[in-house]
Amino acid sequence: MSTKVLSELVLSKSAFSHVLDVPADGLDIADWLFNLPMYEYRRCCAPDHITAGFTTTDDGRKMSINVERIGGTLMIQQYVGEVTDPLHCHMVSISDAFSPNGHTTVQVIWDLSIKPISATSCEFTNSVIAHPTEEFMAFIKEHNISFEDAAQARQSAGGDHNRRETPMFAESIKRKSLMRLR
After folding, report:
1. 3-state secondary structure of 97
2. What is the pLDDT of residue 132?
3. Position 178 pLDDT exceeds 90
């Protein structure tokens, strides 16, 4: 099967924000993401988050490995960092999806950013976009699922998951920055 991404099709898209009462310049998303302890990851969206780790690609780019449940689907995501700056991480994964119907793949783009609001506050945004692969399209066809139905289910489950994890991620990033200052 092909993992060619059909980027013109959107399987799901959500973005949620959370305001933090700390200055943006003290935060570092990349440091948090690539040093995130497994149990802290789990706390950020229990019971959906299962485990997380980090590694690098063969050419040295940073990677975040996340295992989580989105709705009834187990996702294994191998995010490659395309941007890994203190206030912005843009991560792209060809993710394995294990549903009750079997295994397929989707592309997931995960974008984390922080923008200053004032000298003492900032806004964290957690954005997730999923695109189908050719393999995914063959998978849903094999199971007589329309793209519209698959997208509606993914949008509902993915949006709910992102809504719940965003404030927890933001507060976790804040805690890590405050620990560095001690």
Report:
1. strand
2. 98
3. no
Q: Hey, what's the torsion of the CAs at 46, 131, 124, 180, to 10 degrees?
A: 70
Q: In Å, what is the CA distance from 96 to each residue of 65, 99, 106?
A: 11, 10, 7
pLDDT at 103 over 60: yes
Tokens of 91: 């991560």
Token digits of residue 22? 């700390």
Q: Which structure tokens are listed for 104?
A: 């397929």
Centroid of chain to Cα 93: 9
How far is the CA of 75 from the CAs of 78, 96, 106, 114, in angstroms? Answer: 10, 6, 10, 26
Residue 173 contacts residue 124 (beta carbons within 8 Å): yes
pLDDT digits (tens, 9 = 90+) for 126-149: 999 999 999 999 999 999 999 999
- Which residue is listed with tokens 């799901």? 12
pTM: 0.95
- Bridge partners, residue 114, by sequence: 124
End-to-end C-alpha distance for the chain, whole angstroms: 51
Query: Strand pairing partners for 54?
Result: 64
- pLDDT of the residue at 179: 79
Q: Is the pLDDT of residue 1 over 60?
A: no
